[in-house]
Amino acid sequence: MDIDLEALRSVLKQFWTVWLLALFCGIALYAFWPSNRARFERLAHLPLDDDDRPARRPTDGR
To answer: Which of 31, 54, 58, 62 is in the most buried spot, having the most CB atoms within 10 Å?
Structure first.
């Protein structure tokens, strides 16, 4: 069974196209799934929440 590099490149190119399309569809479905809406809304407003506590300085063990 002799396979040349052009045939291998063609097969791999098609595989990556299908793989990336499936990955994109999976991520899009996850992002737009109705049960994730409340979680994403909460996370989207996280940087805008007021924080009345002063920032804590990291402890360095002293």
So the answer is: 31
